[in-house]
Structure formats: structure tokens, C-alpha cells
Specification:
Number of strands: 7
Shape: globular
Distance between the termini: 18 Å
CATH class of the largest domain: Alpha Beta
Largest sheet: 5 strands, parallel
Structural class: alpha/beta
Helix content: 25-40%
Strand order of the largest sheet: 1-2-3-4-5
């Protein structure tokens, strides 16, 4: 599951962590170094994907000391938090202003982890890929965006095609042994075309069932997947960006969904 804070009506981090425990959510994604959330995660068994904000990339890429400090303040100082991944940046566009800093920032974060004596914790460093970077290059990704495939009941066709497009790209870049983590996916329930509670519920329910297996190209699942998002983000724009939450701010679910499919 994912946790964002682009809203002014969200429950405090401690209450969110209790929600995770009650629902047996075992992994979380934070898009930035929220100290209150990190504090609340201490001593839990929740594994964390911690994000490095785009705005930090230039400083981290330019200075190993800066990267060391970032890891010390946000990872090393929380030794009883189960860090699983450090996600450097988020969907960096190849033609965008942060692209030139991404690789060096990833290298410096990896070095900083070892400098902090955390090498044995097996914290992996990666970056959430900008999907459109591959959409025009690999047929599986092209095929997933036909009009008939937009409906949430078509989740296997869309989801598998996109994943297999990335696997094809990895193979062509001599990275065929790597596994892909789906760092966010979901469906908004209002604010745009083809948005409704029914569609959101159908998409997310189908998602949970289908990630238990693999894709046609990589059939040996499950697929590690982070659902987007725990709560609405009422300070985002446009409207559909506000409405991806699975829960209301009072922590009640918006629709019935089984998070732990057998």
C-alpha cells in the first residue's frame, strides 16, 4: 500500500500505521522523508519503500557528503524500521530537468548506504520508471492503450502488457535477470471520464487477484505491487488526481474489497 500526504484532512501517521496493522498490510511506500511516519514505523514489521523527492536529486548527485547525510538522517537513524527500497525520484521524464541527475543520485545513495554500514540490510536502490518512456517503443505497451482496453475489467490485458513491455526493455538492455516492482497502480473513483466507485472497486479487486500470479512473459509470480492510494489527496489537481483513496479520512473503507486473497 502507498501513503501520501498531499492533503490537509488526513489522519496522523501513528493512526495510519495502526490501520496497516489492523488490515495486515505488510508493505508501505512513502514518497518522501516524513519524519513522523518514520517514527511511527519504528518496531513494526512493515517493510518500507522510501522515496527521495525529485527536488533532492541535484544535491545528492553533486555531493556524496549530501547523500551520506540524507541516508544518515532518514535511514540510519531509524535502525528499527524495515527499509526495503530507496526509490530515487519518481517517474523522471527523460527530457525533464531532473533526468541529468538521476543516475549519479542513485549511485551516491547506494554508496551512502554502504558508508553508513547498512550493506548487510539488503536495501535496494532503484527508481520508479516514467511509463511513457517505453510506450512508443515496445508493442506490448502500445497494445494496452486501445479504447476497448481502458475498462477496469480488462486489468490482465493492460497490466500484463505494460509489465511485459518493461521486461522486454530490460532484456534488450542486458537486464533480463532483474525483477520489476509495481510501485503504484490504482483507479480513481471520481473526477474524470470512466471514474466511479464501481470501476475503482473492480480494478482494485481484479488487481489483487491477478498479481498473485505472473505475467505471460514471467509466469512465476507473485508480482510485488503497491496500491495507490490509502487516502484522497484533496490538495492535488486536477480533480481526478484527488480521488484515488481506498479509505476516507475517518479510516473507513470507501467500498468493499478483499486485500488478502487466497
Amino acid at each position: 500500500m502507498e501513503r501520501l500526504s498531499v492533503g490537509n484532512n488526513l489522519p496522523p501517521p501513528g493512526e495510519v500505521i495502526e490501520m496497516y496493522k489492523q488490515n495486515n498490510f505488510q508493505r508501505m511506500r512513502l514518497y518522501g522523508q516524513n519524519q513522523d511516519a518514520l517514527q511511527a514505523l519504528r518496531g513494526t514489521n512493515i517493510e518500507l519503500m522510501l522515496g527521495v523527492p525529485d527536488e533532492e536529486l541535484q544535491n545528492i548527485a553533486s555531493s556524496q557528503d549530501y547523500a551520506n547525510t540524507w541516508i544518515r538522517n532518514n535511514v540510519q537513524n531509524y535502525g528499527d524500521v524495515k527499509f526495503r527500497y530507496i526509490a530515487v525520484g519518481n517517474e523522471i521524464r527523460p527530457d525533464g530537468p531532473y533526468a541529468q541527475f538521476l543516475f549519479s543520485a542513485m549511485q551516491n545513495i547506494q554508496t551512502a548506504i554502504y558508508n553508513a554500514g547498512l550493506g548487510r540490510k539488503n536495501i535496494k536502490v532503484s527508481t520508479p520508471i516514467y511509463q511513457a518512456a517505453l510506450a512508443e517503443s515496445y508493442p506490448p505497451s502500445k497494445g494496452s492503450f486501445t479504447c476497448s482496453a481502458r475498462w477496469p475489467t480488462w486489468i490482465p490485458k493492460i497490466f500484463y502488457a505494460i509489465l511485459d513491455a518493461f521486461y522486454s526493455a530490460l532484456e534488450k538492455a542486458n537486464g533480463g535477470s532483474l525483477n520489476i516492482v509495481v510501485s503504484e497502480t490504482g483507479w480513481p473513483f471520481q473526477g474524470g471520464q470512466e471514474t466511479s466507485f464501481e470501476y475503482a472497486s473492480t480494478y482494485n479487486s481484479n488487481l489483487i487477484r491477478h498479481v498473485m500470479g505472473g505475467t505471460p512473459k514471467r509466469p512465476a509470480g507473485p508480482i510485488e505491487t503497491y496500491m495507490f492510494a490509502m487516502f484522497n489527496e484533496n490538495e492535488k489537481n486536477p480533480d481526478y488526481e484527488k480521488n484515488w483513496g481506498l479509505f476516507y479520512p475517518n479510516k473507513q473503507p470507501k467500498y468493499q474489497i478483499k486485500f488478502n486473497e487466497e
